[in-house]
Design brief:
By secondary structure, this protein is mainly beta. The chain contains no helices and eleven strands. Bound molecules: protoporphyrin IX containing FE.
Length: 169
């Protein structure tokens, strides 16, 4: 007879309680819409996963796929931290394109507004260079999660790049 395995779920660190609505898995409800003045519009699907191991950070992994071919496209992973006692939030992000980002912003109710605090990239990153990113997550009243991302590059001002709505799988 095998021994029972107890999965002691760690308690969420108190500094992250205001973000508990993000935790777990999400998947795009309908294909997300990608755009930017210098590229052809495109459609993609995406899965998000937010987890924690009890420390004062949420771990996340986002995987985007081509809506038709299902080929993997963009990926991001990292950590989310909150300044205890405030509504200040930081996303520490690594992107598969070779971009590293810190975004900071505020949590208002169930809406997160973030923008670039620091950026770094690999020496052989594809052009154009991203100069700024702004991002919004919002938990809608229908229980779905919405993400909008805008960016500025060295040859385009800040414009929307992504819009996608997720549901629980
Ligand atoms: C193009 C950045 C997320 C798909 C681009 C470009 C940049 C960029 C700088 C080139 C724009 C130009 O040529 O003027 C970013 C950043 C992201 C992000 C900073 C996250 C914050 C995504 C996601 C997808 C995606 C989630 C979903 C699949 C594409 C596609 C193109 C593109 C298809 C056009 C083709 C290409 O140049 O590779 N992105 N992107 N991006 N992005 Fe994103």
């Amino acid at each position: 007879m095998s021994c029972p395995v107890y999965h002691a779920a760690p308690e969420l660190n108190p500094s992250l309680l205001p973000l508990n609505w993000l935790l777990g898995a999400w998947e795009s409800d309908e294909p997300g819409e990608g755009s930017f003045p210098s590229i052809e519009p495109f459609r993609y699907t995406e899965t998000l996963h937010f987890s924690h191991v009890g420390g004062p950070m949420i771990n996340f992994m986002f995987n985007a796929f081509h809506a038709e071919s299902k080929k993997p496209m963009h990926q991001e992973c990292g950590f989310i931290r909150m300044q205890p006692g405030t509504n200040k939030v930081a996303f520490i992000i690594a992107q598969n394109s070779g971009l590293m980002e810190i975004e900071e912003g505020e949590l208002t109710g169930k809406q997160l507004n973030l923008k670039t605090h620091a950026l770094a990239r690999i020496s052989f990153a594809k052009k154009p260079q991203v100069k700024q990113i702004s991002r919004e997550f919002q938990l809608r009243s229908d229980g779905r999660l919405e993400q909008t991302v805008s960016m500025a590059t060295d040859n385009q001002p800040l414009k929307q790049h992504l819009h996608v709505i997720y549901r629980r799988p």
